[in-house]
Description:
Order of helices and strands: EHEHEHHEE
Radius of gyration: 15 Å
Number of helices: 4
Number of strands: 5
Low-confidence stretches: none
Mean pLDDT: 84
Structural class: alpha/beta
Largest sheet: 5 strands, mixed
Amino acid sequence: xxxxxxxxxxxxxxxxxxxISGIGWAMEKASSPAGIHPLGLAFQESMKQAxxxxxxxxxxxxxxxxxxxxxxxxxxxxxxxxxSQRPITMGSKWFSGHALGASTAVSMVWAWKMLAEQCxxxxxxxxxxxxxxxxxxxxxxxxxxxATSILLENV
Length: 155
């Protein structure tokens, strides 16, 4: 499947909405065909960069590619970075499919609905939000092992 998203980014502080508080990027050095290290080393690095010095977000919108190795690697990375303070983690593949280059933007729209519009997302049996988040970390991974993380906060 494919997707397209358009958005306007500005450096002007909004009165209400969300702001980008952190961005992280890293590249895997793994030799697997998908470029994913079993411990999700690139995701570990990108999440640390995005969350420094903010700390732990309320929610992670994970990439979770739908493959056993990819899902386990990202979950291992989240566990390694956040340890006992692991945030609630949700994936978007179940409704967005493989949006390829637009997967980050699709997740940003989902985060916007929660942060700025205070809309509760459709819940799945695996994930229940006790309250709407004030901060969301979005993970995305591309072919060859590149990982990005973007931290968004409610304003």
